[in-house]
Design goal:
The chain has 201 residues and is mainly alpha-helical. The chain has 5 helices and 2 strands.
Amino acid sequence: MDEGALLSPDDTSSWRHRNIVFFHMLFRTAAVIVYIFCNLFSSSFIANFIVIISLIGLDFWTVKNISGRFLVGLRWWNEINDEGVGKWRFESRKGGESPQKRESRLFWWSLYVFALIWIVFGFVALLKLSLSYLLVTAIGISLNVSNVMGYRKCQKDAKTRGRSNGGSDVAGEYIENRIGQSITSAVTTRMFGSANNNGTV
C-alpha cells in the first residue's frame, strides 16, 4: 500500500480527499504555530499547555484513524491482551482506488517532518532547561513518533502480504529506503538515546 503499492497516476489532478488533507495538516500545523508563539498571547503555562496538547492529541487521532485510511489506505492500532502485552494490528486497503500519489507523498513527508520538528523543539527546550515545555515536546515527540512507527510497520506488513499474494510492490522504494529508514532511525536513536544518557530521576 501507499509507498509500497501502485499509486494512482492522477498526479496533476486536484486533491481527491481535499477535506481530509486539510484536517490532516490543520492540527499539526496549528500545534507547531501555537507552541512557537504561545508566549506572545499568554503568560500562563497551564493555558498554553492545554491548547498545545489538545492540538497534538487531535492531530494524533486524526492521522491514526482518518487520514491514514483515506490518503494511503493504511490503519494501525495496538491491542493489549489479558497478559498486559501489546500487539500491533494492521489494516490495508484491498481493491478499490489506489492512493493518489500527491496525497501519499504529503502524508508520508508530513509524518517525518513534523516528528523532526518536535524533536528539534525538545532539544531547544532541553538546552534552555525549560522543563515545563520539555514535557510538552516529549508528548509531541511520543505521539508523532508513534504514528511514524505505526504506519511504517503497517506499510511493511501490507507489502509483505502483497508479495505473498503475488503482488508487485515497487513504487516508492526511494522514499521508503532513503527517507523513511533514515528518519525513523534518527528519531528513535535521538529520542531513546538521549533519554538513556540524560534521564536519571
